[in-house]
Amino acid sequence: MSTDPSHATIDDRIDAAAESVGAAWPLHSFVTANPLAGFEDRPFHEAVGEAERILGGDGYPSVATFRRAWADGRIDPELLRAELDAHGYDTDPNASLSAMAAAASTDDPDTESAAADRVDAVVTKWLSAFLDQGQAKWPMPERERGFYDAFRAVARHDSDIPGSDAVAELPDNPVDAIRNALNGHPKDEWEEIIAFHLTALPGWTGVIKQRVADGDAWQSAYPITLRGYLAVRLALVERFDAPIAPTESSDGSGPTASDAPGVPLPGVWLTAWERSYRSALTGVIADASERLAASSDPRDGGRPDAQFVFCIDTRSEIIRRHIEAAGDYETHGYAGFFGIPMRYDGYGSDVTVDACPPIVDAAHHIDDRPATVDSPKRARYDTWSATLETVAGALDDLRSNAATAYSFVETAGAGYGVGLALRTLLPERFYDLLAATDRRTPDAHEFCAPDFDERPGDSTGLPHGLSLDERVEYAATAFELMGFEEFARVVVFAGHASRTANNPFGSALDCGACAGNPGGPSARVLATICNDDAVRAALRERGIDVPEETVFVAGEHNTTTDEVRLYDGTVPDTHTDDIRRLRADLETARAGAATERTGDMGCDVDSGVRETERRAADWAETRPEWGLAGNAGVVIGPRELTAGVDLDGRSFLHSYDWRTDPDGDALAAILTGPMVVTQWINAQYYFATVDTAVYGSGSKVTQNPVGNVGVYQGNGGDLLTGLPLQSVRSADDEPYHQPLRLSTVVHAPVDRVTAVLADHDDLAGLLDNGWLSVTVVDPEQDHHAFHYTGDLEWTPASVSAAATPASEPAAQPADD
User: Fold this and answer.
1) Rounded CA gap, 119 and 200, in Å?
2) CB 536 within 8 A of CB 544
3) Residues comprising the binding site for Zn(2+)?
4) Which spans in 168-225 are helix H?
């Protein structure tokens, strides 16, 4: 970067303007994140109003959504009237619904000039060519020079650009090009102009932001920066004679939610809806807390046959209930990367993945290492993988080669036709074929183990392996955070992943705590650590006594089919019967969970397992599963608080026992880590529901994947980085996901939570600004509930003891 002060000033203004756009991850590693993350430093109602002005997206549920929730009894009448009265609105719910409907009908759509549309179309074409990650057969030339220089070198061949020959004459430094474009405007307007152009295509800007921050292999090979992108865009603005500065019509100015004093009416309804849900959830926890205190031993002295540790994912809540009902089993919740921030390199994989949340930097590089040099299973795996790679490469060459394309169709057409018919007409049979192939082909975990040997770092400087002290620390942290005090003969760490066909958003169904990757590798790493004799000896010195007979087993929960696979290749013969019984009970649990989930999708519950298998294999299925749709709450406390309660797959469950955490360190780690990640997930689902066109990605039916980084609607335009309509809606006009901000219920002394917030200003700011809420059930204050109201203050919380979150408080329906 140049040392010219004006260059630094432009860079600073670019960074400030880019805060209005949230980072976006590529499709192959889709990470759910708050699309308004750059606005979290201001109150929620102000943030959504400002985002509406800049990005054009609605920030609140529609009147129809509120009306439906009111009619369905999801909003408590007393709580709604109290909220309306507190904010100075007419306390008649029907009158306020009519007022919201009248206000919504006066909104005017934004318009853009034809010249600006042409700029967007051309810059989009160049971005999609440059940012392609292996999908294009003929890559854009000169990419290794970076986006700005590659554009200058190649754009003269683009007939869509007026005066394209002059592009090569742009300054060598993109900052100089930006300054030249802005020189005709006062410097105090530069940031507004830059923000106008960065938010014109927020999807592409978000991908560039993330790519620069991540610095992955693609960025190293083909660098792009916001400076380079902005310089190219401004050059096109000049050539198309498009507006360089925002105007009354182009910036979306006009009445928005932020123009009204105080919280707007939709915000009041939203708060009442959230209070209604939270009241029911808090009532469950408060009642259970009181019962637990009266019982000296909630398990009556019995030791469970096995313990499971699942991700805190809302889908785990369903399978955990059914596992506990299938036998004498105990389940726990823990963030799905199992506390190990690693960059994982799978056996035979061409790429590494950061298997940890985006808010955590990978600290270790761990790869899979074959346990023995001569392994029959490894040989079979290598042979099968090589065969598939050869066949796939040959077919790809034949399809894309002009000289062989027609003969390929004639020769292979019949065989392809059979395959297409099978996948289209009998997808469940195709699933059987895939399952049979999987059973005959060894998995890498059957002959590999995580390699913890410490070696020099990788190309990015990340150290390889784990020291003994680090392994002990990760194991101890897991048990301390979850409040483990005893160990069963078998302890299963179950990551999760999904299995779908023809689904650009497949990684959105994998583990969010693993950055949109499967959680099985993380589970294997922690299980391997905990089976290590040296680690167990060190744990005993820290007061964590793992019995010699306890065996740790990794597994992976397929959230599409609810199958739980156990990686038990190293389990000793002494535990064969335990594993056999476990597998049988897991099948029972699978059947129950699949029946419940297919019922939520409106399917025949008599064939739950078969229906989930069909959805996993059907390449025409737009909704293979609901994912985390419906998420609304987080419970941080021991499982006994929610055991036996149907939370309808709407709550993240993180195990925590305040009695084993006297210093509050474990609670601080949970509140600043997993709770923040769940707030990202919740915000993504919320905004994709309230405005699928702006904050989501519209219908899957009309999407086109672009460069393995995102999707378009149709054949061009902005990159759509949010969830598709089918992930959040039952029908175009009927939300399945209830758009509520996250409600967290913590079982701990309220002073302990206050201390955590006092030490973490960013976390307190999220709460003070209303991006999520926290309610505490205090076991030291007669199990009373206290709700956080801001500035480290609490007030007694409303509690509904008569309902659970799956059957919310009854309300008087509106007179429609």
Assistant:
1) 10
2) no
3) 311, 313, 496, 511
4) 174-182, 190-198, 202-214, 217-221
Local structure of 153: helix, strand or coil:
helix
Domain end among 591, 614, 637 = 614
**Alpha helical stretches, state H, 57-161:** 63-71, 77-86, 93-104, 114-130, 147-154
Cα 689 versus chain centre, distance: 15
Cβ atoms of residues 639 and 448 within 8 Å: no
For residue 482, give both structure tokens. Answer: 């979850």
For the chain, the C-alpha Rg in angstroms (whole number) is 27
Phi, psi of 638 (to 5 degrees): -65, 150
Burial label for 42, CB within 10 Å (0-12, 13-18, 19+), is middle
Structure confidence by residue, pLDDT tens digits, 549-561: 999 999 999 999 9
Specify the DSSP class assigned to residue 655: -
**Same structural domain for residues 324 and 386?**
no
pLDDT digits (tens, 9 = 90+) for 575-628: 999 999 999 999 999 999 999 999 998 888 788 999 999 999 998 899 999 999
Contact 331, 323 (CB under 8 A): yes
Q: Note whether 424 and 468 are same-domain residues.
A: no
Q: Is 761 exposed, middle or buried (0-12, 13-18, 19+ CB in 10 A)?
A: exposed
Report the alpha-carbon distance of residue 226 to residue 198 in Å, rounded.
Answer: 8
Cα separation, 87 vs 268, whole angstroms: 8
CA–CA–CA angle 4, 164, 712 (5° rounding): 90
Of 686, 596, 682, 632, give the one whose Cα is nearest residue 808.
632
- C-alpha 36/C-alpha 297 separation (Å) is 46
Name which of 665, 320, 344, 331 is nearest 526 in CA terms: 344
Q: How far apart are CA 530 and CA 540, in angstroms?
A: 12
Same structural domain for residues 409 and 462?
no
For the record, the structure tokens of 57 come out as 């997206």
State whether 427 and 463 are in the same domain.
no
pTM for this entry? 0.92
Which of 596, 771, 575 is CA-nearest to residue 680?
Answer: 771
Q: At what angle do helices 190-198 and 5-18 cross, to 10 degrees?
A: 50
Q: Which domain holds residue 539?
A: 316-371+451-614
Same domain, 576 and 608: yes
Domain boundary among 614, 648, 663: 614
Annotated binding site: 311, 313, 496, 511
